[in-house]
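Quick one - first record:
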Amino acid sequence: MGESIKINSFELENVKRVKAVSYEPSPNGLTIIGGKNGQGKTSILDAIAWTLGGAKFEPSSAVRDGSYNPPKLEVKLSNGLVVTRSGNSSTLKVVDPEGKKSGQRILDGFIGQLALDLPKFMEMSDKEKANELLKLLGVEDELNKLEGKHQEVYAKRHSIGQIATQKDKYAKELVGYDDVPLEPISASELIQQQQAILLKNAENQKKRNNVSAIQAQMVTINNLVDETQKKLEELQAKQAQLAEDYDIATTAAKDLEDESTAELEEQIKNVDAINQKVRANQERARALQEAADYKADYDNLTGELESIREDKNKLLESVQMPLSGLSIQDGVLIYNDRQWDCMSGAEQLKVATAIVRALNPKCGFVLMDKLEQMDVDTMKEFGAWLESEGLQVIATRVTNNQDECSIIIEDGHIKGEEYSNVAAPVNETKPENEWGGF
């Protein structure tokens, strides 16, 4: 790549507030045009932008008030081109070092539009600034794909997060009960258990009744023994047998205990209430599980988002930024860990200048208005940085302090130079300033 193109000199007459200004800016660093408001500082920048940028930069009222002559503009560039606009129609003429004439197309080939209109970049949204840099870095399409995937996953995660929160809230609002079964109980099973116990108790009662019956028979037989001696032997044998049966029956019935059905009866009576509590516990457990499942999905998507962010950061780390400390995070410019609205005015100008220069490396100059937002020390640092980068900045600053400026504009011409209808020669010698070229 060849050396970037700078402005060697400019001669401007009768444009906006400018009467006649002729000057050779420093090829590197800062050239500061000072003066009070309304004296023609910004008019100089507008005139240079119009000369080089074409009709889109033409002021709506180009002719200086009170002048009968049309604007006459000339800018000489370091590649040897001489660009002029003159006459009532402001006709453009571009002449190369060999005397050949050309037009606006050759200028557009190496002059960055944002270099002529830095406020356009400064006024862009954070997203638009970042997009300009991404175009420059050549990763716009790939980063946009990652950004689209990030937004898709973020929206999905957001939706699942809302559902998880709702499910968890719903589950925690449900009533829970202790000391109830995990599953609903069956009334028919309880009734079957009750009937089995009742049947067993009936058998026990039969055995008790049998004891009583044998005992009654013994009484009868004993009476018969007294009444009839002749049947004594038969009755005694019968008596002995009954006594044996009595002993057996007594032994069988002695340890019998009847089981209570009160608990089953109570459960049967309360089966609906118990089952209602069981179902409530089951619903609560199901809702809590749903909430936990959605929370797990949310966490998984959070991990996916982190992975996408890492891919984006790796992509941006793999490219060369035009300024140390400059990066793009979440689609916006970051300089020294600060977003655009948190940068100082000086930092914003430095970032904008670096990006605008990188967008078109052939163009080695930038026009910059309102440099008064920089203090003197910051301006010195900025000028030194421009020199180190081989950049030329022609800027305006509201001040009459000669120590802070390259020239001061007063009433449309350079202060200290007598105004005439002919612009001053551009090859006059000017003192070098110790701040990065101005």
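second record:
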Amino acid sequence: METTLLPHWRRNIYFFLTSQFLSGITSMVVQYAIIWYLTKQTGSATVLSLATLLGMLPMVLLSPFVGPFVDRLNKKLLLIVPDVVAAAFAIILSVVGTLQDAFPLWLIFISLLVRAIAQTFQMPTIQSIMPTMVPTEQLTKLNGQLGMVQSANMIIAPALGAFLFALIPLNFLILLDVLGAVIGISLLLFVKIPEHPVIDEPVHILGDAKFGLDKLRHTRGLWAITIVGAIFTLLFMPAASLYPLMTMGYFHGSVGQAGLIEVVYSVGMLLGGTIIGVFGNWRDRMPPILWAMAAMGVTFGASGFLPGNHTGFIWFVGLNTLAGIATPFYSTLLMAMIQQSFPPAQLGRILGVLNSIMSITGPVGLIFAGPLADMIGVEKLFIIGGVGSLVCGLLMWLLPSTCRYDVKLQAHAQPELTDTVN
């Protein structure tokens, strides 16, 4: 996209990033509070796995069908309406929790499901509008800066959440979600989001999902990256969903220490995102992606060998800081490559399918994660996840179509993409 088409793009995108930063904090505080409540009340890996499973299912099941709407409907509304719905359910959960002595598990699960559905609409919308709001040559840097915003949220939210969780009853803390919706909606009203002519075309849900799948399958290299990413999710997600139990169960820590782990991981992500945001113009982004997968595998796997005492927890803090630094080099650079591989008018449909495929194996792993963790120990799942990350990184390195994908992509890149890169 030409810079001249966006006369005040810097002011617009930074206002958008500010809105994401301010509105995201309250939502994440509530999310952490709910997970810590479940961990403290049940201490069950199965319950935590089920909660994470409900958070992933909408992404898997709905993403291919959400994409066509993202390409066609008003994107500002697609960001606002899910916030309104999530806020309404937060009010319901708060009222029920006030009237009863304890929160019904089924209502908590429904609330988590609704929040996940809202995110299923918002995530591909944000991913698809980024290329329309910034010049192509700035896309990697701005994705890095978006990652910095998200990391900053994850730094503040766990610390603030742990503090508020100790002071405020959960039934009142949940109402922060309503405040977040009001802030997010108010700020988005001032953001200009470019639209495309495809907005006026009729929606054919199955046909559009097939369109996204066909485009992805015929993009050589990216299809293989997607499949390897799905395997990575299968092996990595089960342990990632049990972080609170690892801290509070295996290391015998507190809610504050569980929040500390989230904070240091997010500080690492902020450092990694800062490096990408400042030095983000790699000629070949695959080497840093592969090194990131190796670093995540080593740090994650090593966590499973730590002793379950205070010394082990200190090492766990350090390893998670390193893992956090590596994470944006995988997620942010990969997303920038995907965004540059297709025209903006097609991104919603393609990202819907891609997000679904890369997430679909997560629920499969989570089905077994809880019972397996209860049986063999949560720390063993960290070893499995670490080894899985190393194996997936090795697969990407050995496949020529994936290892050389970005070199070919950038060789064919034009200021305005008109076709996919094969």
